[in-house]
Amino acid sequence: MTKRLLFPSAFCIAVLLAAVPAPAHHAFSAEFDAKKSVRVSGTVTKLEWTNPHAWLYVDVKDESGKTTNWGFEMGSPNTLIRQGWRRSALKEGDQITIEGYAAKDGSNLANARSVTLPDGRKVFAGSPTDGGPVK
């Protein structure tokens, strides 16, 4: 009798879980333009060590002194670790330079290709499997 009660419950749970939307992963070309290189220097405001991509946020000052916050999509935490990154590699307030590819929509978002760390090391920030340009 226990088996009869468990089977319908397990089936119902499986059906409900199948109906929950999963976060979608996008292709590089869906959001970023490989022909629009961007290079900015600024102050780290946040590093989100999340899947499927880590995100790095930087305050960038323009010629007039206006500050704009940029968001940079990077590779997965696992990819970053293999490239020499550590969760503690950047801290709020660090001065860095980031090279990457601008968002197609013209927003202050980009896909990071490399990051020059405060100590001068240049570290790869993307994943070649994301479909981004390979240099």
Tell me what the structure shows.
This protein has 135 residues and is of the alpha+beta class. The chain has one domain (32-128): Nucleic acid-binding proteins (OB fold (Dihydrolipoamide Acetyltransferase, E2P), Beta Barrel), CATH 2.40.50.140. It has helices at residues 2-18, 28-31, 77-82; strands at 32-48, 55-61, 67-73, 95-103, 109-116, 122-124. A five-stranded mixed β-barrel has the order 1-2-3-5-4. β4 (95-103) and β5 (109-116) form a beta hairpin. The protein starts with a helix and ends in an 11-residue tail after the last strand.
Counted up, domains total: 1
Under CATH at level 1, the class stands as Mainly Beta
Helix share bin: 10-25%
CATH architecture: Beta Barrel
Specify the oligomeric state: single chain
How many strands appear in the DSSP assignment? 6
Label the structural class. alpha+beta
Rg, rounded, reads 20 Å
Strand content: 35-45%
First-to-last CA distance: 63 Å
Q: Which fold name corresponds to the CATH topology?
A: OB fold (Dihydrolipoamide Acetyltransferase, E2P)
